[in-house]
Write a structure and sequence with these properties.
The structure is a homodimer of 248-residue chains.
Chain A (H helix, E strand, L loop, with lengths): L4 H14 L12 H8 L3 H13 L3 E4 L3 E4 L7 E3 L8 E3 L7 E11 L1 H8 L6 E11 L2 E11 H7 L17 H8 L3 E11 L3 H7 L7 E10 L4 E10 L3 E8 L4
Parallel strand pairs in A: 3-11
Antiparallel strand pairs in A: 1-2, 3-4, 5-6, 6-7, 7-10, 8-9, 9-10
Chain A binds a DNA duplex (19 and 19 nucleotides) through helix 3.
Chain lengths: 248, 248
DNA sequence: GAGTGGTCTAGACCACCAA
DNA sequence: TGGTGGTCTAGACCACTCT
């Protein structure tokens, strides 16, 4: 079967982008020009451009035109080993800001309960943080801590009433001081398209997926002391892991 | 400003999906029914359903209807520590198959050269593998090995002519036997939307991103012995990392 | 005001599937 | 054969930006 007109337009535009005819930041022909060029109707051309937009290749700006997106810079890298400051820029800039958005007690529920090895009806401290870079949120951090850990660590509770997150000691340091030393983290990484809430909070353009990280932190005896879910903006986040290999 | 009709239809359908009115696997109303229900034109309804499809929530099947996708099972997990067998199913099934697709000598180029710490014009062995689960490819593995490593390891070359990948010793084992023991891997994880090639090879439905993993394997002295790029199907792949934390 | 992309329509025709 | 979703059209009107 013949190639659809819309797919053909999209393919040729895509080829022109990857071969450098339209470098990052440059402007694609106007929709009206593409209509003339391919003898296609408006909605057909828009469908073709829409394919590129949903692939994250271009961005459309009403009143201006269509522009090639620059996807070369995924600046922020997350290293689990450095949970203390959580963020390090690959360029060596300062860590990203870290804002506490909400904190409350709730039941663990089946998912979090399994990750923390506690019963689903146990109370856990649920906290949400937004990691910023400039004014933009680049990652949503949801964390759950069992009640007995909170009791021992104690001053986590001080954060409950403060929305502004001071440069306090991080959770891992507090846990060590309380005797619940975290010694190992396991992180499962997945990807998916964002839901409307993610788009809203992270300010995601079309065609950008999110990185999901499910973390469980354990103490020396293997008992979970904390679990977290991270939702990162796919165009601004990368994760970095360094793992030793078992020698033969 | 009023909510667009298309967005309104999409939002209500989305809400009906998440609240269980349309559970995974169930069928959404036909386009013609939604046209009547909302008094909207065909293309408007299709745009709304298209939003859900691009979010990975539903799948449309010509001649049948629109169905809610089941995204609960991301069965395959990748553990870098177990590079020997590369894949382990969370359910404990056998590792996925591993097919050598191509192998050839080429110049490292700037990107691979930097990752391997060799000059861009140095020759490297470039190999492509497809990781299968059943008949489907779930991950594309591109690997680059410097010429001097290949010389010492030697029998990597045996794979050059074979398209079927026998259950041979894996690369890490061969390297250890040759004295180039890999002792550490660094993996950078990103996500993006697939390009048409990815869609073709991985058989990706609309609205599914890919997981990109950039790996560098180093020996005991910190010299790179291998680098790889993994492109994983976002609906069938997860990565799993376990990292020890530095004790205070 | 002129030009951009965004929304929406009513209708035609095509490709695929089941009975 | 009848119903499904997919493609494409020609045209109207809207929202936004710059001059």
């Amino acid at each position: 079967m013949a190639e659809k007109l819309r797919d053909q337009i999209a393919r040729k535009l895509r080829e022109s982008i990857v071969d450098g005819t339209y470098p990052p930041g440059s402007q694609l022909p106007y929709i009206t020009e593409l209509m003339d060029q391919y003898g296609a109707a408006r909605e057909t051309v828009r469908g073709a451009v829409g394919q590129l937009a949903h692939s994250g290749l271009v961005t459309t700006m009403r009143g201006h035109g269509t522009f090639v997106r620059d996807n070369t810079s995924v600046a922020l890298a997350y290293h689990p080993e450095r949970a203390a400051q959580l963020w390090s820029q690959q360029t060596g800039e300062a860590p990203a800001a870290n804002q506490l958005v909400s904190a409350r007690w709730e039941k663990a529920g089946p998912d979090v309960g399994e990750r923390l090895s506690v019963a689903p009806d146990k109370q856990v401290l649920y906290r949400v943080r937004h990691h910023h870079r400039g004014r933009q949120v680049v990652q949503i951090h949801e964390g759950w801590i069992p009640a007995d850990i909170v009791d021992r660590v104690g001053n986590i509770g001080a954060n409950l009433d403060s929305v502004e997150d001071p440069p306090e000691k991080d959770l891992y340091t507090l846990m060590r001081e309380a005797g619940d030393s975290p010694s190992e983290v396991t992180e499962d990484v997945l990807t998916r398209m964002p839901d409307p809430d993610d788009v809203e909070i992270l300010g995601l353009p079309p065609g950008v997926p999110v990185l999901m990280t499910y973390r469980v932190t354990r103490d020396g005896s293997g008992s979970p002391v904390e679990t977290s879910t991270f939702t990162g903006a796919g165009d601004r986040i990368s994760l970095s892991y360094t793992v030793p290999l078992n020698q033969k």
